[in-house]
């Protein structure tokens, strides 16, 4: 099965259609989005001080100016309106669709992160690190290029507002614009935004240098513009005479680029070539070289000032011919020559080729949405993402920081970027996309070629995983020498899979053994979890696991289900003979063993504390004579079920004794009460009043909890146990009634 899943949690970027300016509904979409946002934004102010609706208008206008799709312009309003909605994603999804809702979510998240980074109080040494974090944030969100375009337009609008309103621009904002946003626009080839961001950031960061340069240009502006227009008209006429159809323009002047040239080459203003600059736009590449030949024929070229970016484009796709020639007046003049398509790309960059909406069933411009169109989209996305990666690499190496080679970036078939450690393999890639995909991975195509799963990947490659529907990893992947997995963390995932498999097999084995035992014992109705609990395990699986590992004998379960019969010894036989003969001097009555204070063959069981006139029964024990139980004792009932032949009839003796000579028997009384001061004293007073001897007291106080409050009424609970000596258990009834009458006592009963 082929797969091209995205990393877990990653957003499937919906910028997958070429710009189609002919879509008729797009303008209505912008108007509808503005109408939706206006009541929410009109009276609101952003943290910069700018009106929210005016800012959204400015962002939409900038996007329109660089040729962005109308739908992206509409999204500019929705992103800012979302700040004033209770459930923004849900509302936007219902009104405008899931694609807009996703954009709102990601853009708002990025804005919040950027604000937090800017507002963090850091030292001067840490400011570069903060700027790097913001750059990495933008890079992380570049999976959805709509977010990047919106943030670029928003930042440009913010700087424009500071310039127009003459409000001071925060130093952090200007520095971030120059160090992060302008280079990003450059990488995407959006020159209009790049140049304006640089000029405005230059204006706010170095106001004195900016004013001096602007003043120097303004002083000779009229003369310079006259010379440019004269040169433009002369070149236009000459090319027309040569039969070359061309549009010749005077190039705009960008102060920051002039400033950088003056600083970098120690030039005066007059020596900067592009103060006089022309741009020639023609129909074909052949015409570009035809214009170049004519220029060098008419004017004198300046040595070392020619660049052919058509034969060797810049990394971001920029193409043009650059040359510097000496004009008729002997002054240097720079000329750029390009086709219309190259010009559109140079001015608008990625925005000239991308729209944010997905292609419909019929595609765009007659291109099938399922065939050639998708291939074009994938190529374009990879080209843009490669530029962002190149920006990352250049910046990290340029800062002298961590070496970029410690990680690589590869693509899924859908051109989704996946970050991996250097030396990672297709198996590492599969696990990075999704753990389940990693488990089921069986093969990989790297740039369309089937290669072994331990092949080392490199940045920019496209990896397609071949996976089975069900199955798990290979044990070979855990062998470092075979090189299938480079990540220790991912090796731990594989190891955990095998551990879970082994555990499941062990539990299944243990379950089978236990169930067979229950069948032999005729106990199949017994609940397995109940059996495990009686044996001291948390659950049935815990019992099965130790049984499956042969760490727990089935004999323990047999003993629980079928306790061994005690082996009779001489003591028991003696007790039984005494029982049958009733030859005790204490007086036997018709073969009934008489129980009394002097009955040496009997013991009173502590579990139920029998006392006259309780109905009693005897159980012949091993070596301890006859144990006397109350007839309703639960322990006696269990012993009677297992060994009915050992139960004998018994009766109380010593009935003639009275007063001080009457025998006494220990009896346990349990009291539950709300804990309070003086409670124990009040209870003991009841026993003293009834002349009952208390031989043992045990008390415990428990804090009230959610579990006990509904039953006890809340507060702390006192549990008290008293052992009394009685000659007649009937006296307990009145004592228990008196105890229940004590304040706070909830219950009093015989154990």
Automatic annotation (TrEMBL):
<dbReference type="InterPro" id="IPR012675">
    <property type="entry name" value="Beta-grasp_dom_sf"/>
</dbReference>
<dbReference type="InterPro" id="IPR043519">
    <property type="entry name" value="NT_sf"/>
</dbReference>
<dbReference type="Pfam" id="PF13291">
    <property type="entry name" value="ACT_4"/>
</dbReference>
<keyword id="KW-0808">Transferase</keyword>
<dbReference type="InterPro" id="IPR007685">
    <property type="entry name" value="RelA_SpoT"/>
</dbReference>
<feature type="domain" description="TGS">
    <location>
        <begin position="406"/>
        <end position="467"/>
    </location>
</feature>
<dbReference type="Pfam" id="PF04607">
    <property type="entry name" value="RelA_SpoT"/>
</dbReference>
<dbReference type="InterPro" id="IPR012676">
    <property type="entry name" value="TGS-like"/>
</dbReference>
<feature type="domain" description="ACT">
    <location>
        <begin position="668"/>
        <end position="751"/>
    </location>
</feature>
<dbReference type="InterPro" id="IPR033655">
    <property type="entry name" value="TGS_RelA/SpoT"/>
</dbReference>
<dbReference type="InterPro" id="IPR045865">
    <property type="entry name" value="ACT-like_dom_sf"/>
</dbReference>
<comment type="function">
    <text>In eubacteria ppGpp (guanosine 3'-diphosphate 5'-diphosphate) is a mediator of the stringent response that coordinates a variety of cellular activities in response to changes in nutritional abundance.</text>
</comment>
<dbReference type="Pfam" id="PF02824">
    <property type="entry name" value="TGS"/>
</dbReference>
<dbReference type="GO" id="GO:0008728">
    <property type="term" value="F:GTP diphosphokinase activity"/>
</dbReference>
<protein>
    <recommendedName>
        <fullName>GTP pyrophosphokinase</fullName>
    </recommendedName>
</protein>
<dbReference type="Pfam" id="PF13328">
    <property type="entry name" value="HD_4"/>
</dbReference>
<dbReference type="InterPro" id="IPR004811">
    <property type="entry name" value="RelA/Spo_fam"/>
</dbReference>
<dbReference type="InterPro" id="IPR004095">
    <property type="entry name" value="TGS"/>
</dbReference>
<comment type="similarity">
    <text>Belongs to the relA/spoT family.</text>
</comment>
<dbReference type="InterPro" id="IPR002912">
    <property type="entry name" value="ACT_dom"/>
</dbReference>
